[in-house]
Design brief:
- This protein has one helix and five strands.
- The chain starts with a helix and ends with a strand.
- The chain is of the alpha+beta class and 105 residues long.
């Protein structure tokens, strides 16, 4: 029914916002060996999502018992540390930078 779908929509938006209000993710690391150049590596550490908010969400009942939920006007902040480096038998170069990305619609 439409009233049940509206309630589901409201509760789904609340659960998504609560789950990502302060979420942390494991580090992502990779490296690649290049024949003559040496080794290139990178990592993303301390990845976090903060302050997810949903401005608007809508629900629509479709055929075959399908419920479609649309989320709009989302704002979110990502932060973490990006590290990258290059190494060979001759030299090693590396750098780390903290970042924060804010997205608002």
């Amino acid at each position: 029914t439409k009233p049940a779908a509206v309630l589901l929509n409201q509760q789904t938006a609340e659960v998504i916002q609560a789950a990502f209000r302060h979420a942390s993710f494991p580090a992502v690391k990779a490296e690649k060996s290049l024949k003559i150049l040496g080794k290139v590596s990178y990592s993303l550490d301390n990845l976090q999502i903060n302050g997810l908010s949903i401005g608007k969400s809508e629900v629509e009942l479709k055929e075959d018992d399908v419920i479609e939920i649309s989320i709009q006007n989302v704002s979110i902040s990502f932060n973490g540390t990006l590290s990258y480096g290059y190494g060979s038998w001759l030299m090693n170069i590396g750098h780390s930078i903290d970042f924060e990305i804010k997205s608002e619609t």
